[in-house]
Amino acid sequence: MKSRKKYFLYFLFLPTMPMNCQAQFNTVQKLPQVVKSKPVLEVQTDSADLAVSSGKEPKTNHGEYFDLPNHREIAIEYPCQREQSLSSLKDCRVQLDIANQYDIPLFVSVKDSMMMELLNRRTSVALPLDFIHITSDYGYRKDPVVASKTAFHNGIDLRCAKGSLVYAMMPGVIEKVVYSESGYGHHVIINHVELRILYGHLGLIAVKEGDMVSAGTIVALSSDTGRSTGPHLHIRAERLVDGEWKSVNPEPFIQHLNDYIAGLQEEMANLRFASRPDRPLNLTNLFKVMEQCGVLYPKIVAAQYCLETGYGSSSVCRNYNNLFGLYDSAHKDYFRFRSWEESVAGYVRMIQRRYNPQKDKDYYAFLKRIGYAENMDSYNAKVRAIANTL
What we know:
The protein is α+β, with helices and mostly antiparallel strands. Helix content is 29%, strand content 22%. The longest helix has 23 residues, at 251-273. The chain is globular and about 65 Å long.
């Protein structure tokens, strides 16, 4: 008998997920690690075939076949003991047949599968900006350039700082890229089959006509090109009706996207913690807790949270509940809090107690005086840009 080499077979299934934009998907919680089945199955190999067993020499009569996700056939000897009844062995084979029929990964928990499904749904949509604040509605309004006139506004305007990232809201094709100093200014049109979206008053455009983009792809940087009184993002939506494109109000669509994303993130939080958290971490709750803790300049502090944690995605935020990068120089490590609410109270206790309105002309000067970050000029500029969007 030929000698046989022994190997261990591990199954690892990871979802394929676009990583175009960290800012849009940073709130997605980390997937729990896949629990490996015990005992680990041992694979016997030779030049003829691959047989899986529980550590014993393979029998001449191999079991049924099933396909792995890479469509490679291997022979299976089921890890059922000799004392098991034939009915138990039959049930074991039926389960494997069902897994093969519906392409269910073996040895992956139900909780992992549910998280993968939520992640796939979450990464199929995105908001056009990191923060949504409508400054001008759809419909008739006073002309912003000529105040004495009334004009129809065929879209909505979203507040943003110059240079903010602009994202594709759904998968689509770049139908048109226009560089202009009038009207919508530099703008992009993305076609989503029966819906197309125009992004207006852009600066740098990162796509070209014909590109296929996924949700969360960075389309451009915002600006104030064209007929505009200041930096903002104009969103225009058109639906295909009877072969013609007709303008529709994009506000309900964006509101639906926002509610859908919020619902998915709540489901992921519930699944991760195995129960509903007392107070999920989001900007609404953050402002409420800051008010309760008496935080000064809450918009600037909220902007610090966004910058320090990558909008809540950093490991320090997730593992230490530390929202502001508070560092313990004595132990040379970040402070650890039992909850993110405690982190807000800790910020007041450790940072804002040192604020002196007589010594500091504003809060940015205070942050620079205490040396909150290494490069304070760059840090304050980033915090100011985020705060202007809140």
